[in-house]
Amino acid sequence: MKTRNETKQRMGMTTKEKNIKNLIVGVFALCLMSVSSFAAGTLTPLNSGLKPVEIESHHVKLTINNGFAITEVTQRFFNQNPSIVEAVYSFPLPVSASLSEVVIHIGERVINGEVVGKNEAKKVYSEEKKNGNNVGMAEKNKYKNFTFTIANIKPKESLIIKFVYYQPLKLNGDIGRYAYPLEEGHTDELAKNFWERNDKVASNITVDINLKSGWPLSSIRVPGVIPLKEEKKLDSGEYKASYELSTSLNKDFVLYYRLKADMPGRLEVIPYRKPGSKEGTFMMIVTPGLDLKPIKNGADYVFILDVSGSMRGEKIRTLCDGISRVLGKMKAEDRFKIVTFESSACNLTRGWINASSKNVNRWIEKVKKIKTGGSTNLYAGMSEGLSDLDADRTTSLVLVTDAVTNTGVVKPRKFYKMLKKYDIRVFGLIIGNSGNWPLMRLICDVSGGFYAGVSNSDDIIGQVMLAKQKITHESLHNAEIKIRGIKTYDLTGATLKKIYCGQQFVVFGRYSGEGKAKITLEASLSGVDKVYSKTVEFPQTDILNPELERLWAIERIKMFEDLENIGMMPLTETQSAIKDLGIRCQLVTDETSMIILDDETFKKHGIMRKNKARLSAEHKAQSKRLNKNRRFQNYVAQGSSAKQDTKRKRNKKMFKGNIPNLSGGGAIDPFTAFLMIVGSFGLFVLNRKRK
Amino acid sequence: MNILKKHTNSLIFKIFLPIFLGFLSICVFCFPIATEMMQFDRDCLMKIQLWRLITGHFTHFSVNHLVWDLVVFVSLGIACSVKDMKKFVTVVILSPLIISIIIWFVRPDIQFYRGLSGIDSALFTLFALNIMKESLKQGKKDFSFFMGIIMILSITSKTIFEYISVETLFTSSANFIPLPLAHLAGIISALLIFNPYLFRKIFSFYPKIGKIIFQLHFLG
């Protein structure tokens, strides 16, 4: 503070000047907030007379290793201006992403990132920028995007920025999906008044994929792109490929991988514990192999569709296409209601419609003609959708939106209170990037539903079919994971309201002690209690997956946000908890940012190199996993050592069944077989008698 | 040629052929690599691995799936081949092709398809049609003729009902989605094969293909 006052005195500012400065800072802050709305690309202030910072190259290296993905993006920027500029690069926030590493190469100099409190990062950044030093900052802007700001780029200077983020990946049935988001989200029009986006890349965008699955793969699909080269060892769960995309950062890259048919239901526990540490972290992936039967009785479906301005373009086409296909798959006994909303809500069908083929076809045509406009009053849409429900029929609410609510009631707490009153399931589909994931998560979790993202680059029909599979099949109720025999704590996601057909779920947690633990999934199916259990070893030491600590912390942060949103945790307490976790596990959050400096400047500001130590352990583990992939696979699938393997072979399976998938089969059921054989025999006998 | 014709017309061969095909299905099921190479796989079909259009029907997802499909295939196969060998062979070759093509166009969401049940439906229809034809040959529409109609109508209406209501009436599988469409396609293919003139008429736009299929029908 003393330094700042001295500076002010030295500058000799008047009160008026201070006010003007405050105003400029305010506008700048507003601009930075608005930056959040943009998709991938460099940003230049409008009417600044500056040429945009050029993106010379954009290379993505993707490693998917069983339960999570590591995305490494390397870009070369070039300042084509005759003056020193500040480069701003933003890209849509990938779901559950933990930004772990940022490295900037400027000529010979290399600067690295460390996570500190948001205000501290801003202070250090401003100071170093003013001193003319190379400095960078990475920030998370709520649910919208990551922004990288790099100061003092000299005229005609090139720099290379590399950033890495981790994401847990879940399977949907037997299908895994990874998305690298790039496309404009259209969720904040205000930003366009301040910034001009440059999404052009001088050379082609390249993506290298290294996929390793503990289970055999059957196929890989990247919609709309053909690989330059690929190396498939699908039986051993390995796939390597190189893809070349267009020269614009305006289209998402989506990868699907499908496991072989008949993969068993399973429980996988991946631990991490440093040597000598009193506690460890684990990720538990539960893939239920349950024979959940189709729901045969007619049900009611409410479709609540966002037709606000932010849904224009590809989003509305995606929405209409998806809904038309769902309508087309309804049974004659089903009923549906369509509610659209923008600034206000409109009950399009004016009540329940029987899903006869005639009605369905009529409404498919009407849905295809939906136009967009206005702001987003999600609360009004939900209220209208929840009116006139029939207590005697099962009701599912399908909500399709980008969830960027900005009119009417916007507080998540109000949504929570409204949904608590009803016994319905909400299934949310978030269309496009930069959608309000926290709000959608809250809405769906409170009702025991689920949510999924849909990109314009997705196979829409596949996504819709996977969602439909969940809605139209029985689900397990009041599911809860219990771990006995070892002390576990700080769990995330261990209590689920429902488990749907093909749904995989991931539980993160911490543990102390070592040895065997009995893991039990307790739930009820059609009023009958079901218990599935398995014994798993929690080791004293395991250094293969240090990234788990960050992934666990991200899930904890999501949990804190949810608690704050429903009013069960005060805002200040939430902010403090998020900041503590962010700094401890080196995560860029809403309360923490990554400041990028050289070693000496870190020392000067007294910033500890926590991320450097963490990254060193992670890099070592990543290279170890790369070299000893087979061992890692065995570990995930069965056990970490030969001794454990043998023991686990004796350990009974948690689920008897296999995971469901979207394969089709011509199946003769016993009744039809009986009908065919007896009928044919009867005909044969009649024919003989006639002769 | 005469020796071959004599053998193919023998009762033992007529019984042996469906059993042999059933045995092949069991062998394929026992070797997952063979199943992978033979199943209907949309991506592989795009790479012109066209044999999968036929061989895919002889692959299965699970033991339960295999057992019921096979029981019906072998029993109806023997009944059909004894009654009319050439029509049985035609159905076994052409109906998988027709079913696969229908699945390809009508169910683009299905990546993989396995199962003999489409052919089973075709064989059942074929057998009933054969009985009806014999009844007509004798110049009178007796009880067996009407029973044939009832059997075909009952299996068709059950399949149509399943198709409309999306799920099958009695089967539910966690491994795959049961496809009533395949059964419907099987019934349609049997009707077309039983009446080759109708078939030829459909293919009249492509006379050469129509002619080949027509000739194939009279093979044996």
The dominant shape of chain A is globular
Largest protein-protein interface: A-B, 50 and 66 residues
From the alpha carbons, calculate the radius of gyration of chain A and give it in angstroms.
27 Å
Biggest sheet, spatial arrangement of strands of chain B? 1-2
Question: Can you walk through the features of this model?
Answer:
With 691 residues, chain A is an alpha+beta fold. Chain A is built from 16 helices and 34 strands. A 14-stranded mixed beta sheet of chain A has the order 12-1-4-8-7-33-6-5-9-3-2-13-16-15. In chain A, strands 20, 21, 22, 23, 24, 25 and 26 form a 7-stranded mixed beta sheet that branches. Chain A has a 4-stranded antiparallel beta sheet with strand order 10-11-17-14, with no helix packed on it. In chain A, helix 8 (437-447) packs across helix 10 (548-565). Chain B has 220 residues and is mainly alpha-helical. Chain B has helices at residues 2-9, 11-30, 32-38, 42-46, 52-55, 63-83, 85-106, 117-137, 143-164, 180-194, 196-202, 207-217, and strands at residues 40-41, 112-114, 177-178. Chain B is 74% helix and 3% strand. Chains A and B meet through strand 14, helix 9, strand 34 and helix 16 of A and helix 6, strand 2, helix 8, helix 9 and strand 3 of B.
